[in-house]
Amino acid sequence: MSDTSDKLEALRQRIDQLDSDVLRLISERAICAQEVARAKLAEDASTVFYRPEREAQVLRRIMELNDGPLDDEEMARLFREIMSACLALEQPVKVAYLGPEGTFTQQAALKHFGESAVSLPMAAIDEVFREVEAGAVNYGVVPVENSTEGVVNHTLDTFMESSINICGEVVLRIHHHLLVSENTRRDKVSRVYSHPQSFAQCRKWLDAHFPHAERVPVSSNAEAAKLVKTEWHSAAIAGDMAAKLYGLERVAEKIEDRPDNSTRFLIIGSQDVPISGDDKTSLVVAMRNQPGALHDLLEPFHRHQIDMTRLETRPSRTGVWNYVFFIDFKGHYAEPHVAAMLEEVRLRAADLRVLGSYPKGVM
Predict the structure, then answer these.
(1) Cα separation, 29 vs 23, whole angstroms
(2) What ranges in the chain are assigned the alpha helix state H?
(3) Which stretches of the chain drop beneath a pLDDT of 50?
(4) What gap in Å lies between CA 215 and CA 145, rounded to an integer?
């Protein structure tokens, strides 16, 4: 046997031993998770098993300890799946998302909760809210903003009518592909299906490569992928999950006009989330219609040195030409300097509601 063969055999034996060690340690972790569940149930039969702040702290710690060669996000993704499987031993997490199956929102749900979560598609954003409010699911996942196309107004408007909390966030890099089926005649494509936002995000690529193809907007990219399965002259713009679900082939990959195209999703639930150490807060504020109202709203943020990351304005449901402000900022509402700022704003506002404080997206 050559020196190379001897070295390869030794490495394979080492990998086999490491695999055995990893398997044993994962099993030990799973047993610990079961013991945690029993301890929680002994103390409170209605206990909440999923703790967003604890999950975020564990993943941050893993990324800080990681020395490679796998990058931090890949290592965190692996641990997310281990945590998801262990949590399922305690109690599977049920998550509603804006469907149908195969959408980017489902991809965001699985990125945040792991593949062991039970994900349920809903036809509309307000249905996701209703499922959470009714207690039919533990959490919901809804899109709130895209780096190219801006805010999702329907999500913001639904918060004005709901008492549900924001428990987390997840940012997903959005990659669009041109997909065809095995029946597609690629030289005869005359129609492209996709969601209107995806068309907007791929406009330049389509203009350059399919300038004469009819662009047919549909309710979701998953629906676009489904339609392509039944037609010989059409293609779809969708992501990896839809391609896999419907068995489509990627003719062109990553056709979005901006390589940094990302969508932010919110995790909604009924619980308050304790401080994790790196948090964000979202609130909705109604100001009185008077000169200087916006200045009065923003001044306490500046004075308390609180970093506001987003400010959106939406028409109020209570009067013509009245507006409410949706605000995201760094910090947790339970931190003393944040609590002091919020109290000042509350005194100046007609109404203020904290939608939630939650861990900043880890991955």
Answers:
(1) 10
(2) 3-43, 52-65, 72-90, 104-113, 125-134, 153-159, 196-201, 203-209, 221-228, 240-246, 293-303, 336-348
(3) none
(4) 23
pLDDT reported for residue 49: 81
pLDDT of residue 179: 96
**Placement of tokens 């060690």 in the chain:** 21
Query: What span, in angstroms and rounded, lies between the C-alpha atoms of 139 and 133?
Result: 9
Structure tokens at 176: 């669009």
Does the bond joining 291 to the residue before it have cis omega, within 30 degrees of 0? Answer: no
Q: How many CA atoms lie within 13 A of 149 on its CB side?
A: 21
Radius of gyration of the chain (CA): 24
Phi, psi at residue 146, to the nearest 5°?
-120, 140
Q: Work out the number of other CB atoms within 10 angstroms of the CB of residue 226.
A: 21
Cβ(263)–Cβ(221) under 8 Å?
Answer: no
Distances (CA, A) of 8 to 5, 11, 14, 282: 5, 5, 10, 54
Q: Using CA atoms, how far apart are residues 303 and 338, in angstroms rounded to an integer?
A: 11
Number of residues written out for the chain: 363
Residue range 23-35, pLDDT digits in tens: 999 999 999 988 9
By three-state DSSP, how is residue 295 classified?
helix
The pLDDT, as a whole number, for residue 66 is 96
Model-level pTM?
0.90
> Quick check: bond before 336 cis, omega within 30?
no
The pLDDT assigned to 1 comes to 56
The answer to whether 349 and 287 are in contact (CB under 8 A) is: yes
DSSP class per residue in 9-46: HHHHHHHHHHHHHHHHHHHHHHHHHHHHHHHHHHH-TT
Q: Rounded to 5 degrees, what are φ and ψ at 121?
A: -75, 140
* 182/249 Cα distance (integer angstroms): 8
| Predicted pLDDT at 90 | 79
Q: How far is CA 252 from CA 11, 175, 177, 200, in A?
A: 38, 11, 6, 17
Q: Compute the distance between CA of residue 45 and CA of residue 23 in angstroms, rounded to an integer.
A: 31
